[in-house]
Protein: Putative gamma-glutamylcyclotransferase
Amino acid sequence: MTNCPTNASHLSVEACRRLTHSSIQIGPLSSIFTPLRMVSAFFYGTLMHPEILKRVIGNDGSQLQMCPALLLDYTRHQVKNEDYPGILSYSQSRAMFDHDLKSEEKSVRGSLVTGLSDEDVRLLDVFEGNQYTRELVSVYPLGPLANIRDIPPIEMKSLVPTTPPPIPILSELGNPVEAATYVWCLSSSELRAQLWTFEEFVKLNAWKWIGSGSTDNKDYDEVDRRRAMEGIIDARS
Structure:
């Protein structure tokens, strides 16, 4: 998988894939060859799981700090026939619903991660692929940052709370921070209208992404191949 430029909305899916197939950089066309440095990132899908994040970047993540965070005015949807989600701004996704969403429904709970290196970003770009574009957003931390090495081993059943605490009102959220996130860049028709939840992923599908269950997970193939090439990227037709 490779990544779409941010202004690819007028391109066909196939044109988008052809345009970005030979480059893993993401952003406007003018910055295709200029990496967007990402020190902090907001993850809202499979990468919320620390073990999956460490699997993708290929290290123990000891340089990373993370905390729960909130992205407002976006919705999170399961990609059809996949375990993982994509997000859209609510202004884009509103047409997918027959009613106005409540604040909780048009807010995305995820993880704010700081300390990512350029190499981490390169591998994250490869992992996310041509379905997403990397964009800067403002997110609200919901707790203090903790070093990933200080987070105890996670058991599947305790990874997420049974009942997440309600979202604070805007005036109680504190100051937002800027972070990069991966926004869905293909047609919204490839997303289910039903909102994706991390709780359901942990319960039903996370076993396919960690430990022995991930051995045959094809979603890791490309990032493993790129890492094995030690940074030598080849453009394939």
User: Anything to note?
Assistant: Helices lie at 13-20, 50-57, 90-93, 118-128, 198-204, 221-228. Residues 118-128 form the longest helix (11 residues).
